[in-house]
Amino acid sequence: AAQIDRQWVEMQQHREQMRKTGAAQTSCTGHAVVVFKRMEYAAKCVRHFGAIRQHERSRSVGVGTVDFRQLYFRTHKLEVTRAPEPSDIVWGNLRYSSLQKRTQQIKTTLIIMLISCCSTVFIVIATFFATMRSEGIITTLWSTPVIIGSNVAIFIAVPQLALNMERSHTRSSQHQHMLIKMVCFQLLNTVIATVAFLFIQWSPPPADHQNMSTCPVPNFPPPDWSEVSCFEPRLDYLNFLPACVNHWYVTGAAVLINVVVGDLTAILFLIEFIRPDKWIIRYLIAPKAPTQAEMNQIWAMDSEFYLPFRYQLGLKHICIAFTFCPAMPILLPGCALIMFLSFWIDRFNLLRVFKPPPRTTDRTVTMSVLYMLPIAVFGHIFFAVFFYSKQADLPVPVPYYAALTLLAAIVMVRVSRVLGRQSQRSSRPVAHAAEGHEMEEASDLAGSSSASGSSTELRHHLEKIEMYVPPLAHTLLEHIYATSAANSDLANRAISSTQWPVHASGLEAVDEAGGDAFHSARSRLVSLSEMPETVRPLSAVPSTVAGALQV
């Protein structure tokens, strides 16, 4: 009875809150969702406003110019885009403007940057004192938790700030911002804490270790601050003392090992697989639910933020392994082990522990593949040149590093532009559907020609996906599609010559009259003609065939 009374009171409170919310004065959020009867109509609307937007951006803005988007709705500019999935929309944040969103993003970024700087200091201090007073496993037991806690602080603060401060309109953009912040700032504090030990000048090792100068000893004396720094700033070369680079394998490399071991044991195994919160929810909270339906809802854990968390851990270790594997090749099998275990842990969690994640766009995957991985590749090249040149005692001029950095910037700008064009092209697949509505009323030959063209030409398939295709993959796909189309063309020619020899001879006569331009069109026409009555009148009248192909 007490449980029923408590639920009744909560129901009355919720009803009163809904009544107050409904009676409160609401303002327009500036967003509207328009549902079209046919998909091609929606595509036509998007193309129309997209053309107006491109026109306004291309022409010069002067006195007296009018943005034609202002003519549609009370002098306000209309931005027409594809509506996200209903589960992807954060409805409570639609009332916030773009300026408010950017302001909150800047605030949360500054807060995460402050946390990252503090965690970097803690990592450097922990590694520094662990190196100076190393006691084996005892030192590892207290230094590794410090490094783990420094990274955990970042991805504990990021979702809280995303929920309480940021004003993202969709979960896709929310997950994307979370992924960027967690990956970038964790990489920032790890890389800075690792590279910082290249600038510390250590005293020479004891006399009994002089014959091992090329192999750093596990415990060095304190740094000699009276000596010159390891780095000598010059405009032509990056001058690092060879002893400092050798000592880095004791100090800076220890940071990387602690990061990999900590994420593998504490985060991947304990937090993601064991999940103490799962046991608390399932065996302490869920049994207290008054109904079976409520218990089922509590038993399956929410997976709203699961994907960005898992993406950030995988990207972090991929970037670390790519960047520092020239100095520490052991990072590659370590990263492979983490990715292998991540696959099985994610499979178990998504099938056995969590509810299905909300439907979002592929922005998170796009950001992972097209932005983070190129940065990791350029980091790999940069540190490979640095460490190998120091090992070979062949200094590399600074312009080489500057050129590599400039090339990385050019690649990132190029990728951003291509993605921008790809997003503008998102309505083109539907554009073909719009033309398909008119094709339904046209001849069967035109309809079959369009269908075959979309199946044998790469550009039609690339327009149906939103992912950016790199140039090398684009070239390989073009070759595959061209080979497939050529094989299909030869097979269809053989079929047409054996079944309908009159049509082939008729088309050969047209080919001689029409030239090479008609040769490629003829092969497509023969391959698309599956019914004799479709080809027979066209082969009898060559001029009709040419006109049909032009249409």
From TrEMBL:
Q: Which segments carry the region annotation Disordered? A: 426-456
Query: Which N-terminal stretch is annotated as signal sequence?
Result: none
Q: Cite the InterPro entries for this sequence.
A: Csc1-like (IPR045122)
Output the Gene Ontology terms for molecular function. Answer: calcium-activated cation channel activity
Q: GO CC annotations? A: plasma membrane
| Keywords assigned | Membrane, Transmembrane, Transmembrane helix
Q: Is Membrane given among the entry's keywords?
A: yes
Annotated TM spans: 110-130, 136-158, 179-202, 248-274, 318-345, 365-388, 400-419
Low complexity bias (residue ranges): 446-455
| Name the record gives this protein | CSC1/OSCA1-like 7TM region domain-containing protein
